[in-house]
Amino acid sequence: MSERESMPCDVVIIGGGPAGLAAAIRLKQINGELEVVVLEKGSEIGAHILSGAVVDPKALDELLPEWRTMGCPMAETPVTDNWHWVLSETGKSDMPHLIMPPFLSNDGNYTGSLGNLCRWLAEQAEGLGVMIFPGFPAAEVLFDENGAVTGVATQDMGIAADGSHKGDYQPGMEIHAKYTLFAEGARGNLTKQMKAKYDLEADCQPQVYGIGIKELWDIDPAKHEQGRVIHTQGWPLSETGTWGGGFLYHQANGQVALGFVTALDYANPYVSPYQEFQRWKHHPEIAAILEGGKRVAYGARAINEGGWQSVPKLAFPGGALIGCSAGFVNVPRIKGSHTAMKSGMLAAESIAAAVAAGSQHSELMDYDAAVRSSWIAKELKLVQNAQPAVAKWGEDLGTVIAGIDMWMRTLKIGLPITMKHHRDYTTLQRADLHKPIDYPKPDGKLSFDRLTNVAFSYTNHAEDQPVHLQVKDMELQKASELGVFAGPSTRYCPAGVYEWLVDEATGEPRYQINSQNCVHCKTCDIKDPNQNINWTTPEGGGGPNYPNM
Question: If DSSP codes are grouped into helix, strand and coil, which group holds residue 297?
Answer without folding.
Answer: strand
